[in-house]
Amino acid sequence: GPMSDRPAYLRPYQEAVEAFGPRFEALLWNRPETQRVRFEALVSMLELEGRTLADLGCGRADLAAFLRDRGIAYGRYLGVEGVHELCEACRARVRDEGLRDCVFHERDFVADERVFGHLVQDGGASVLVFSGSLNTLEPAHARRVLERAWGAVSAVPGGTLAFNFLSDRHGDPTRTDENTGPARRFDTLALLDWAMRSTPLVRFRQDYLQGHDAAIVMVRD
Predict the structure, then answer these.
(1) For an engineered disulfide with 81, which of 8, 87, 91, 140 has Cβ 3.0 to 4.6 Å away?
(2) Contact 59, 85 (CB under 8 A)
(3) 3-state class of 54 per DSSP?
(4) pLDDT tens figures, 97-124
């Protein structure tokens, strides 16, 4: 529909798709190398062998390609993407590159509160991953999305929630010249506190990209 009908958090991606097409630039990462570093950090904290994972805001299915290139034998990959052109690009990539055991759903996981339950209960997902896909949300809104995701995935044995975000503990807090574009920095300690109150099984990393990014993994107790 018209751009004005798109939710504010999806508009930057839709505008980028219209400017660049469904290419890497439409994902709003600054370059592929930093995307890979984030994937490396997140995946280092996960057990994915044989498991069904859901990639929320999957973009161009870059995470599925990353796992293939690293030889990580996941069970199934469920991609969820709210931008039509990117979802179509995912499906084309499966055909062109032979990404295995991938299914894509064109859905807005922020607005549609049923998505996480469907992925877990109907899709068999036991790992929910958000890599960069929360960055255009207001922090309080992102927290509500994470709470819903955890509520769904923590209902299954070994249920795991993994997410990364721009950390507010990245160095000099007095800097005022920083431009993160449509992305927002999140309160890292508040997210860690929420994670630890939800489960004692929490993993945390901020030792990559000079501390500008952070990753949290929560596992059902």
Answers:
(1) 87
(2) no
(3) strand
(4) 989 999 999 999 999 999 999 999 999 9
